[in-house]
Amino acid sequence: MSALKIALAGASGRMGRMLIETVLATPSVQLVGVYERANSALIGQDAGAFLGQRTGVSVSNEMHAVLAAADCLIDFTRPEGTLAHLQAASEHGVKLVIGTTGFTPAQRAEIEAAASRVPIVLAPNMSVGVNVTFKLLELAARLLASDYDIEIIEAHHRHKVDAPSGTALKMGEIVAQAVGRDLAEVAVYGREGVTGERKPSTIGFATVRGGDIVGDHTVLFAGAGERIEITHKSASRVSYAQGALRAAHFLADKPNGLFDMQDVLGLR
Ligand SMILES: NC(=O)C1=CN([C@@H]2O[C@H](COP(=O)(O)OP(=O)(O)OC[C@H]3O[C@@H](n4cnc5c(N)ncnc54)[C@H](OP(=O)(O)O)[C@@H]3O)[C@@H](O)[C@H]2O)C=CC1
Ligand SMILES: O=C(O)C1=N[C@H](C(=O)O)C[C@H](O)C1
């Protein structure tokens, strides 16, 4: 079977670099294009230069050239960048794996609309461990529904720009749905001052930012006389990159449609 041809956006980013390294180390995929914004010092350099490797693929700010030979674009950038790349990918009929977080509902609707033309995997966390954790949360929330207070705590590196993390928000949606609540109505994002007693049906979010924390998520179920904590900790970005490549392979035979990592990993 021939290798899946991968284009990447956000070459200079933490995930961009990890993806270049992972693609180059994975025989079932081939790097065919790497995009970075116009003012980047990387434009024109070999995409593997930061690893001391020569790939023959130069970093480019011409998205149409980057996509010309690609089967799939993997995008971990920012919402406004992803939406521009989505437009170009759907014009080229190139499949998309989107790891970017922080989309507004309107931006998400744009992605859903594009998925009628090209197949897309959109997931706030591509690691297998986090996606299995989602299943554990569903079970725990269902069984603990009435008597336990639910709080979600996430910690990330100092450079992260969106909060709560996309993963924490997804965890909130999962537990809210499992206990029959609407997250938009019950979410409490941080607390300060005289807040009054905790309302039983709320789901609280707490955000920590510091240093080089790759990504920690805990869902706390606090009841009378006991606490259950379900925690996932990332020690490296490699699990996100490997998940993104699994997602790209999953899309290979899909004509269109919007999928997530639960679909990719067969966890539905
Ligand atoms: N789904 C998952 O499993 C994971 C998701 N993420 C998400 O991926 C995203 C990227 O994270 P990370 O790599 O740490 O971020 P970085 O800030 O390290 O990298 C972002 C990259 O995107 C580029 N970029 C920023 N804005 C735009 C734009 N408007 N148009 C085009 N390119 C742009 C940057 O280029 P420049 O250098 O020019 O600014 C840079 O190359 C975040 O949303 C994060 O939450 C992260 C890890 C895992
Ligand atoms: O920005 C990050 O680093 C991460 N972002 C994703 C998120 O917002 O959930 C996934 C992971 O936690 C790392």
From TrEMBL:
Pfam families found in the cross-reference section? DapB_C, DapB_N
Which Gene3D superfamilies does UniProt cross-reference here? Dihydrodipicolinate Reductase, domain 2 (3.30.360.10), NAD(P)-binding Rossmann-like Domain (3.40.50.720)
Listed under subunit, the entry gives: Homotetramer.
Name this protein carries in UniProt: 4-hydroxy-tetrahydrodipicolinate reductase
Major localization class: cytoplasm
Enzyme Commission number(s) of this protein: 1.17.1.8
Binding-site list for NADP(+): R37
Q: What gene name does this entry carry?
A: dapB
Q: Name one GO cellular component term.
A: cytosol
Subcellular localization(s) per the UniProt record: Cytoplasm
Entry-linked PROSITE patterns: DAPB
Q: Which PANTHER family match?
A: 4-HYDROXY-TETRAHYDRODIPICOLINATE REDUCTASE 1, CHLOROPLASTIC-RELATED (PTHR20836:SF0), DIHYDRODIPICOLINATE REDUCTASE (PTHR20836)
Query: GO terms for molecular function, please?
Result: 4-hydroxy-tetrahydrodipicolinate reductase; NAD binding; NADP binding; oxidoreductase activity, acting on CH or CH2 groups, NAD or NADP as acceptor
